[in-house]
Amino acid sequence: MYAAVMLLALGIEGVMGWPDRLYDRIGHPVTWMGSAIDACDRRFNREGDSAARRRMMGVAVVAALCGMVFAGATLVVWLLPGGWLGVLLSGVLAWPLVATRSLYDHVRAVALPLARGDLAGARQAVSMIVGRDPERLDGAGVGRAALESLGESTSDGVVAPIFWGVLLGLPGIATYKMINTMDSMIGHLSPRHAAFGWAAARLDDLVNLVPARLSGLLIVAVSGRWRQSLSVMLLDAGKHRSPNAGWPEAALAGALDVRLSGPRAYDNRMSDEPWVNAMAPDPSALDVARGLGVYLKAMALLGGILLVLALI
To answer: Staple 114 to which of 11, 75, 161, 285, CB 3.0 to 4.6 Å?
Structure first.
């Protein structure tokens, strides 16, 4: 039953995304989660506290927010009717927690101006999906950033929430989304969040261990050059600063025969990251479009797997 729910969520979001009119009217569940996280950050992450206390408060906030989301979603499921009506309603509720169409649209918004030679437009579009300084990116840098975001977000935006939804239903996908949102907001090594966000970052690493590797395998399976994609993934995934993001990114680099990662600038600070698939050329605008094609095939394969699971 959970697989059927996730198949519905994947399909609805893939067709509709999250309409602007709906966002203007009620926002989005991730923005609701973000508001709760921000309130906890302002209330409990006090500058004058020791690092140990801030870490302890971060652990407590993670436990409290995850517990509330899991309990709330469990109550919602308990109130839903049984049978296929319950499956349909659960799929609708899970719909905004999957980013199938949203991810495609964001990367396509980079690919289109890049293909036209509009570097300024491509930089503006890529700034919406990555944290690096867009003004210091040339065309190849924009292409790398877009493909890296596509690879990583295939996992944490689609495969991981679906994975936890298949295992635990609506409570699983909702709790995963809270964990991932906490990591994106407070799980980084800034002076303010190094201690307070420690638990959020570590928990996000944990819940993405299996989905990241599954995402890489999905990309390998649809790549059309599975030996190369698999080889690059196995050789280079561990070079990534993240224990998880390197798997789908390296698989995509091998699938497209381009190099990804490498040095990049964040807030006027250079980060000397190693190359993934270092001997390949930089990606072009055409490679970004090809990457979107691989992504669509991977989503179709994921949908097929969910259908099989739903029918078993």
So the answer is: 285
